[in-house]
Each structure stands twice: as C-alpha cells, then as structure tokens.
C-alpha cells in the first residue's frame, strides 16, 4: 500500500455553522462537488452521527474511479469532523473549521493509502499525477461550496 498525505485549506466568507453543515451532510455533495458522483448511506450511526458509514464514489480529471467508505469517528459541531476510511482508500480524514470575523477557514487533512494494485505499482512514477488529481478535486469542492453558500472563496490551496 502506498501512503499519501494531502492538506487542503479553504477560506470562505460564510458563517462557520453553514460551512460545517454543508460538509457534514455529505449525502448532498454530488449536487455541488463535481468529483463526487454518488454517496450512499451504509449505516446511520448514533443520534449525533458518530459511527455512521457512507460509501463515496469519486471521479476527478483522470479516468479512474475510487470507491471507499468512511466511518465517522468524531463530531464536534461546528469545528471538527473525523473519519476512518476503508476500501480503495484506507486511512483517516479530518475537517477542522475556525472562524475569524466573516471568514471561515476549513482545513481538510487526508492521510490514506491506496489498495488498488495498479495505483500502487504506478505510484513511483504517478505519485505527482495522483496528487495533482486530488488537488483538482479539492479545488472543485471549495468552489462548489462557495457557490452553494452564495459566498466568496478567499483561499483554495492544496499541499
């Protein structure tokens, strides 16, 4: 398994509560996030959503799909979401939010390993391309979130 760590920062002129709710309700992501093809609820979790499991179907610029499930491990409204992924991407992801005046900062950290054999075989050469593809998808997400909220996207960066 080849491991990756991606960090994305979105700074958006919108209330933290609205930004958190849009991210939390990932079943709606396909309506505003171009790379997300479908989200299926597998298990609902507790009354706060902890333990819920959703299956995500992604396709970005490169002609391959990724399918993985995320189990919600922690929710701290409106500042944090954490999950554990399994399937074609195995690892952890977190959303950390803060607000300074009218601007909400969202920091997404995605630390995963790929389980698709062809991706692992090609990783020594294709790692930069996979990173570019992830950045493209996250860029789409920031722009889509801003459109959804009728807000201005101040920053949309990826490392």
How is this structure best described in words?
By secondary structure, the chain is of the alpha+beta class. It is 29% helix and 48% strand. The chain has an eight-stranded antiparallel sheet with strand order 2-3-4-5-6-7-1-8. Strand 6 and strand 7 (103-114) form a beta hairpin. The longest helix is centred in the C-terminal third of the chain and has 33 residues, at 117-149. The protein is globular, with a radius of gyration of 15 Å.
Summarize this entry quickly.
29% of the residues lie in helices and 48% in strands.
Q: What's the CATH H-level superfamily name?
A: START domain
CATH architecture: 2-Layer Sandwich
Strand order of the largest sheet: 2-3-4-5-6-7-1-8
Q: Kindly estimate the percentage of residues that lie in beta strands according to DSSP.
A: over 45%
- Total beta strands: 8
Coarse structural class:
alpha+beta
- Give the CA-based shape: globular
Number of helices: 3
CATH fold name, please? Alpha-D-Glucose-1,6-Bisphosphate, Chain A, domain 4
For this structure, what is the CATH class?
Answer: Alpha Beta
In whole angstroms, the N-to-C terminal distance is 21 Å
Q: List the uncertain runs.
A: none
Mean pLDDT: 97
Protein topology:
Blueprint: E1 2-12, H1 16-24, H2 29-32, E2 36-43, E3 53-59, E4 65-76, E5 80-87, E6 89-100, E7 103-114, H3 117-149, E8 153-158
Antiparallel strand pairs: 1-7, 1-8, 2-3, 3-4, 4-5, 5-6, 6-7
């Amino acid at each position: 398994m080849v491991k990756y760590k991606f960090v994305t920062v979105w700074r958006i002129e919108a209330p933290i509560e609205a930004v958190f709710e849009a991210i939390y309700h990932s079943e709606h992501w396909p309506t505003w996030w171009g790379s997300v093809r479908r989200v299926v609820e597998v298990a609902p979790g507790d009354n706060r959503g902890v333990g819920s499991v959703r299956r995500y179907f992604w396709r970005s610029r490169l002609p391959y799909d990724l399918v993985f499930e995320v189990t919600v491990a922690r929710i701290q409204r409106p500042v944090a979401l954490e999950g554990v992924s399994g399937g074609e991407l195995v690892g952890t992801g977190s959303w950390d939010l803060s607000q300074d005046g009218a601007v909400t900062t969202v920091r997404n950290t995605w630390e995963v390993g790929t389980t698709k054999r062809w991706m692992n075989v090609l990783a020594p050469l294709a790692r930069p391309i996979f990173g570019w593809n992830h950045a493209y998808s996250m860029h789409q997400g920031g722009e889509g979130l801003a459109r959804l909220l009728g807000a201005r996207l101040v920053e949309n960066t990826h490392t």
